[in-house]
Amino acid sequence: MARTGVLIETENGGVKDTSLGVLTAAAGGEIYALVLDTDPAGVKDKLAEYGAAAVVAVKPGSGDAGTSPDLAAELLAAAIKEYELEALLGTASAVGKDLFARLAALLDKPLVSDCVEVNLAEKKVKKSHFSGKTFATLKVNADLLLCTVRPNAVEAVPAPAAGEIMEFTSDAADPGLVKVVEVKKGAADKLDLTEAPIIITGGRAIKAAENYSMLEACAAKLGAAVGASRAAVDAGFAPHSMQVGQTGKTVSPKLYIACGVSGAVQHFAGMKTSKVIVAINEDKDAPIFAKCDYGIVGDIFDVVPVLTEKL
Ligand SMILES: Cc1cc2nc3c(=O)[nH]c(=O)nc-3n(C[C@H](O)[C@H](O)[C@H](O)COP(=O)(O)OP(=O)(O)OC[C@H]3O[C@@H](n4cnc5c(N)ncnc54)[C@H](O)[C@@H]3O)c2cc1C
Between 20 and 30 A from 132 (CA), which of 1, 53, 99, 177? Predict the structure, then answer.
């Protein structure tokens, strides 16, 4: 059976939900979950529940992979060789995008990033192009498939496996080209927009920065992150880090609730692959109603508080 590696991302000692989706995307082969930064004993059960046959703690002989992405890429390259992996999958997160690009350059192999479907048996992946207007299926003609999967694009499905703990120490040297000196984290109680399973977004209709508290109250009930359209960001109602769209973040939650967003193509480019889209807009002819699964014609300042109360 083909061996597939999955780079696991952790948070507060636990496996990120988005990594569980990547394990499901890797189903079909014997899955080696590669853990760079956490004690594998603490994550073994979760990874085994979602299909990991092996949970490998990948460690450097010397140096700190946490502050050297080049060393982390060297470790992954060594693990691919050690376990004869035919593919390595990861999340198209900030970390995944960084490490996989370094890894592909290091190994001189092709990389397909931000995929929404993976067919390992045929080495085919699906990803969106031209701001989400088209989807392309790509066949990778290489002995190693390197790919990152868009967060939440593949729903995590339990598939119990052995989850045997292994340890692999590589003597790879740190090229020392880049050193991470500081990581500034967002507010601890706020979900990362790109990885959130539910997002509620406020558009220009939100009218003022303080009105986002209305969406935050609803988000707290839903376990959601709060996003913004570019019009809202340009008006100074929200920071750019909250912007969804072509020039903002690409998201793919299970549920996307757009409040007072017209549905411009550039906004859709960033959230088109959401599983269920709900729109609240007072204009029944707003373009977003042609693209959503459920629509509510109404004033967001009437509808959202009622929604929050019902939740
Ligand atoms: C190169 C380029 C890149 C871009 N990148 C992005 C991007 O990344 N993300 C992005 O979002 N946009 C982007 N845009 C801008 C995009 O074209 C739109 O201008 C923008 O998405 C509009 O934001 P909006 O829907 O919030 O505002 P509007 O288009 O002004 O829509 C506001 C909507 O709110 C409704 N409304 C008003 N009041 C209420 C109320 N009280 N209750 C309910 N509904 C109400 C209105 O009916 C309207 O439909 C980009 C544009 C360009 C040219």
Answer: 99
